[in-house]
Amino acid sequence: MKYGLLAALAASLASPTACSAGPPANPPAPYDIVIRGGRIVDGTGNPWRYADVAIRGDRIAVVGAVPADAAARRTIDARGLVVAPGFIDMHSHSDWLLLEDGGAPSKVRQGVTTEILGEDSSGGPQKGKMPPRAVSVKGVERKIATLGGYFDAVEAGGIATNVASYVGLGNLWGCVMGDSFDHPDKAQMEEIKALLAEALDDGAIGLSTMLAAPREMVSTTDDLVELGRVLRDRGGLFSSHIRNEGGEVFDAVREAIAVGERAGIRVDIIHLKIADRRLWGRMREIIELIERARARGVDVQANVYPYTRGNNDLASIIPPWAHEGGRAALLKRLNDGASRQRMKAEIRAGIPGWYNHYLSVGGDWGRMLVSAKLSEANRRFEGQTMDRILALRAEGKSPAPDPLDQLFDFLIEEDGSIGTIYAHHTEEDMNLAMAPPWCSIGSDGSAFATEGPLHRGHPHPRNFGTFPRVLGVYVRERRTLRLEDAIRKMTSLNAAKAGLVDRGLLLPGQFADVTVFDPGRVIDRSTYLDPFLYPEGIAYVAVNGRLTLDNGRPTGERPGRALRRKPAAGEGRSARLSGSADLLAGRPERLVPAGP
């Protein structure tokens, strides 16, 4: 009975149409924005409903019926549109691009209001054997040595999206081990753990790994569990690009589960997939593996992007040992005859524990699309598949050169790195991975632009189209997902994973991150061959109560914030981020608690 009375009281106080004894002594301040008549998809997964949304300052004030005569500085007619929480990109690589252009063009146009950065390589720490990074922020030179310093820099430069970040294991390893592929000794592991703790105290939401990277292959499950215990003490998330997405993907998923179970921490697997043609069609078994772990109490989840091709580098075909010592050492080995012979044999036969992109696509050069910006001498190869490039490079040569020798030469000409899109997993497997309630959406993309300095290379279309593609293809056209479930996967589910307790839902008291789109028109337009195209159908985007997209046009506003994780007193395994103050303080419309 007591609960029912309290709930009724809260509802009556929060409602703008609640009865009162008379006019208030001090009329409320005008709303900054009122969005009227839209279909509200609030991020919970509940069915949509018609309602208005009122924003005052940086918070949502009302979700319900806003009186027609309510004063508002701006009114948006959302009839025929969907009003949703701003999309949270769980897997973004915009870290350094935001310091070039904080407008985040390709993300804002997708409806993204928060980017989660730092997959393996984060804004900090950069110290010890990893020198601080020099950047220019509004004409002022800065050297970034810590993750906190990175957060300060992006805020000083101005950003259109909010950002939160993991600390990358690549940074921690690099600060202590440099380019060495040696395993850290006990003292070095203590240094790595201290740097992890420092970054978490600087505001990192957790630790992110790229275990398939050559240097991190030397890390063991025991190492990850040891680092996980530092996370457990501070409530951080363990986000893992698992050790092998190909022939050993089952063992790699088991390892991620084991780290979570042994360390007692939350786990999020980065872009869950089966990237080896020999195992295509077995995604249901991966899902069952995760479901069994969850059934016994392991909090393991995952995210995906809605494409069947992934982005990496042609250099990933080169065996791990050849990368030790950095780019210069790799180039020296590529020029050495004996090293070439060893590399050829290992590329074609594989090495136990190594995820070999060449074998994962069955040695099919046609499944590799060059996405890099190339040197002038090789400019004609941009945007072409490797089978075509190899044929062009072999013209007039007799006998025809070994394709792997051509690969080595191509890499040498491009200083050891050529961005490449690999067609390595299937639509059927990807659809299955997308469906479970614990699998969310992340782009694995960056904030590029269709013109100016951020129009570069030949990027993956996910940089421009991830979230509209989910809504246009997988909700409207194929009906793979319900609208409400898709929105939840792009908003509150990611907020809950990252600890964003007052974002990701359309509720009074939440920060006013809002995306408004046309459900009949929203669609991605970027393709593998023509990536520099913005999506259609995203109409309005608000970040912290200010419009970054107005009727489909960027406003130039930079209202984004660095969301530094701040452990609450006695938090145990949970965490809150800055800005999550007492939502009840003097504001009746904020009586609904923020966060899942």
TrEMBL record:
Domain Amidohydrolase: 74-123, 459-547
Signal sequence range: 1-20
Protein's recorded name: N-acyl-D-glutamate deacylase
An example Gene Ontology molecular-function term: hydrolase activity, acting on carbon-nitrogen (but not peptide) bonds, in cyclic amides
Enzyme class: hydrolase
The organism's taxonomic lineage, starting at the top: Bacteria, Pseudomonadati, Planctomycetota, Planctomycetia, Isosphaerales
PANTHER family: COLLAPSIN RESPONSE MEDIATOR PROTEIN (PTHR11647:SF1), HYDRANTOINASE/DIHYDROPYRIMIDINASE FAMILY MEMBER (PTHR11647)
UniProt-listed Enzyme Commission number(s): 3.5.1.82
One cellular component term from this protein's GO annotations in UniProt: cytosol
Keywords for the protein's UniProt record, in alphabetical order: Hydrolase, Signal
Region called Disordered, residue ranges: 550-596
